[in-house]
Amino acid sequence: MPAPERIPSRRMSSHQAPATPTTPAVLELLGRGELTVRGQVREASNAVLFCSVAHEGEQADCVYKPVAGERPLWDFPDGNLARREVAAFELSEATGWGLVPPTVLRDGPYGEGMVQLWVEADPEATLLALVEDEEPGEGWKAVGPAQVAEDRTALLVHADSPQLRRLAVLDAVINNGDRKGGHLLPGPDGHLYGIDHGVSFHVDDKLRTLLWGWAGEELTEEAVAVLAGLDARLAPGTPLAERLAALLTAAEVDALRERVARLRGTGRHPVPSGQWPAIPWPPV
Fold this sequence. Notes:
The protein is of the alpha+beta class. Helices cover 26% and strands 24% of the residues. It has a six-stranded mixed β-sheet. A three-stranded antiparallel β-sheet has the order 7-9-8, with no helix packed on it. It has a two-stranded antiparallel sheet with strand order 10-11. Helix 4 (221-233) runs antiparallel to helix 6.
């Protein structure tokens, strides 16, 4: 694959698209528009191409992740990370929280891949921090100690934000194995998006996240209601279940249903299993 001109990461790009709610017009633009590769996000572990997409007079910036550019993983099948990204978008939409940017699966210049609306993060927003105190301050939740030097540790904390808490619930539902700080995009309008969900939906417990601040706490009433709705929408034969069946294996869809049922049964945020590293590396 030719190497397009390098551009900065999502947080720093000068190409800005406003946070856009998912509409049929946006999905049609992403799914049917002409893709033009403008650059490559080189910090990513897989091929991530920055593109423009144009259709019937409309244009937007987007990310294109071709399957051909996916690096093989030992614990996930080859060539289907893009489908998992689309499945995460489907689940996000089903919650009504809109936490994942509009995402489609389609052919592109380098074959089939995931195409997602580009979202620019607010550079002034702070969701994660390292503090010298033993306890988090007001408005923050503790994740755990972090080694910041050979002889010094600090406390890693994240914001005690309702939107971040919703994302923690979504991650538990999709079994996100890679919720890093760089995957959190707080928009200028205050809306939060999460990106990079390729290593999700495994049948085994793979939850790795920086959002452990609510571990073991009771779910909010809102989350309980959303999980009840998901439970119904994931029933076999429903439109959501049929769409997911085209993206995931039958065993993965069954495991998804089981996770939703387990969260509803406990009524609490999950805690680290102890059988899998709880924090992704690198954390950003």
